[in-house]
Design a protein that fits this description.
Elements (H helix, E strand, L loop, with lengths): L2 H9 L6 H30 L3 H23 L4 H22 L8 H16 L2 H27 L6 H44 L2 H9 L4 E15 L2 H5 L4 H22 L2 E6 L2 E6 L8 H16 L12 E14 L7 E4 L1 H11 L5 E4 L1 H6 L5 E10 L3 E9 L9
Helix pairs in contact: 1-2, 2-3, 2-7, 3-4, 4-5, 4-6, 5-6, 5-7, 10-11
């Protein structure tokens, strides 16, 4: 385990977000570096005969160490502590460099001021960053107005001392700002990756890529695809009066099984609506054997349901309906969008499920024709299908190379 993770374990609280945990850990490291650098500066200025400047840096060292102890002991006060530390850094560094000769001593007040603003963006809320920005502007203006009077009261500093001071300051600033920038980029990349993962949980990979490149309506026509609807039999009645957590937990168990099956078969889960599950084959990318794959998936769904019992111990059953035909697929809307399907083939697939039988897979003539010789079919006879009238449908059976119509 790295030092960053060890620090994070010490300062993170149970309710902290990932960002807050990282901020606290980085703050610990910055406070340690600040204590070392301000202490070293204090010794150098004391050696150069500028005791008042050295005293200011000594105070900053003490503030950094106290802040470090407070953060480790009481991480819940992080936000006010971070703001106080940044404010102290402005006042301390500004005072020290004014006493050391203002801008002429090496422009350190500007260097530290810019660095503190960078840390403010990382460590505190936006409104507090604006307060610190206002303070930075004010201090630069004051330093400019006092430049001549402050400089005239100081002894001439050794040019080598000034050059060394500026060199050390620039190196420290460069390292701190680079570290802060790397942290910021890492956070951006982490959230981008998380957003991509969430998008891929909602949309097919190819569709997600297209949507990121060109936001707007996405619509594709497919001359043939296979659509499956499944519904848990009597789930609404079964759930009446049940504990909501039990209902959701059971649905999650069942649909998680279906998700794994869909992935293993290379099918695209479209959506769930209540206790209904919709999946399709042959899109968003062509799949020549889409009907066979969906049929195999349907049989696995029925078999998977045999492993599930309700929270009261009842056996759980499923109805499955399948149809093959032309569909339109796409993404519409700007908020809470999903990848969805439209068309008569979709409606008929839905009717195959709603008019189906418990633990049976009901299919249309089109599906039967596609799967001829691969599965056995039992003709159910003409049934009334809303919007279509009388239709001859079939119940698909596992195995058997013979179609048995009755």
């Amino acid at each position: 385990m790295g030092i960053f993770q060890l620090i994070q374990q010490r300062v993170a609280l149970p309710g902290d977000s990932d960002t807050r945990r990282a901020q606290k850990s980085l703050a610990v490291i910055v406070l340690i570096v600040a204590a070392i650098s301000t202490g070293a500066n204090g010794l150098r200025y004391y050696g150069a005969g500028l005791a008042d400047v050295a005293a200011v840096y000594g105070g900053l060292t003490a503030v950094s160490l106290i802040g470090l102890i407070v953060l480790l002991a009481a991480p819940q006060v992080y936000v006010p502590l971070a703001f106080f530390m940044l404010l102290s850094s402005y006042v301390g560094n500004g005072s020290a460099h004014l006493l050391a000769g203002g801008y002429t001593s090496g422009l350190q007040i500007i260097q530290w001021g810019v660095a503190i603003l960078v840390f403010a963006v990382l460590f505190v809320e936006r409104r507090l960053v604006l307060v610190l920005l206002g303070l930075f502007i004010l201090m630069v203006m004051i330093a400019g107005m006092l430049e001549s009077s402050v400089r005239s009261r100081l002894p001439d500093l050794d040019p080598q001392f000034v050059a060394t001071d500026s060199t050390i300051t620039l190196i420290i600033m460069g390292a701190l700002v680079t570290g802060a920038a790397l942290y910021l980029f890492d956070q951006v990349e982490r959230y981008r990756s998380r957003a991509d993962d969430l998008l891929l949980n909602i949309l097919p990979g190819t569709i997600a890529g297209r949507l990121k490149e060109n936001p707007g309506i996405i619509a594709d026509g497919f001359s043939e695809a296979t659509v499956l609807f499944a519904d848990i039999v009597d789930f609404t009645t079964m759930s009446s009066g049940a504990d909501p957590a039990d209902v959701v937990r059971k649905l999650n168990e069942i649909f998680s099984d279906f998700d794994r099956l869909a992935t293993s078969h290379g099918l695209e889960k479209i959506k769930t609506i209540g206790d209904a599950y919709m999946v399709a084959g042959g899109l968003p990318e062509a799949q020549p054997d889409h009907c066979q794959v969906v049929a195999a998936f349907a049989l696995d769904m029925v078999a998977a349901m045999e492993r599930h019992r309700s929270w009261t111990g009842e056996a759980m059953r499923i109805r499955v309906g399948i149809n093959t035909g032309p569909v339109v697929a796409g993404v519409i809307g700007q908020q809470k969008f999903i990848y969805d399907l439209w068309g008569d083939a979709v409606n008929v697939a839905s009717r195959m499920e709603s008019n189906g039988l418990s633990n049976e897979i009901q299919v249309t003539q089109a599906v039967k024709d596609k799967l001829a010789g691969l599965y056995a079919f039992e003709e159910r006879g003409p049934i009334y299908v809303k919007g279509k009238g009388e239709m001859v449908t079939y119940l698909m059976r596992q195995g058997g190379a013979v179609n048995s119509d009755r």
